[in-house]
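Shift notes (night). Ran TetR family transcriptional regulator while the centrifuge was going.
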Amino acid sequence: METATPVQRKVSRPRADALRNRERIVTAAREMFVEFGPEVPLDEIARRAGVGNATLYRNFPDRDALVREVVCSVMDRTGLAAEVALAETGDAFEALSRFVHTSADERISALCPMVQSTFDKHHPDLEAARRRLEELVGEVMERARDAGQLRADVGVGDLMIAVGQLSRPPAGVACEGVDRFVHRHLQLFLDGLRAPARSELPGTAVTVEDLRRA
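Came back to this:
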């Protein structure tokens, strides 16, 4: 009995201009979601991206798909910042610092709550991006802790809460208006993470699972 040879299918690659258009749409959407919220008209996003409405809908058939892509992209980019810092310097605390500051620049604190409150937070793409980010940050924190750089009583959940709170503008204040304060305050927070600890924290280290149950 002969085994059938699988048919080899040629996978077509997106054209370079199509990839550029997709990236422009994601960048414009990220900016406008932060400025105006997740309900900003999609044709306004297309206009800022410099593409037609048909191009936007060809890439993202509905608003949910576009929001998911924006949030996944932001999580991927912040995780990559920590990964690159670790590869370039070998210093886990420097990698952690770069992740924290890049998270603020990417507006992760403004974008992630959109998924938590409005969209399907259990979508496989979001779950995968979140898991990659959590695992990477957990690894960087563990390395910094093993090197004696990071205090022992903090968890990934502690870090994510603090970054979100410190980089989110107060109600009624645009992100751009507080940018000059954000990195200053984040650096104060990072200094407080360094070992040896100068105080004892109440409670126990917050994990990602603690955040999900909250």
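The radius of gyration is 20 Å. The chain is about 70% helix and 0% strand.
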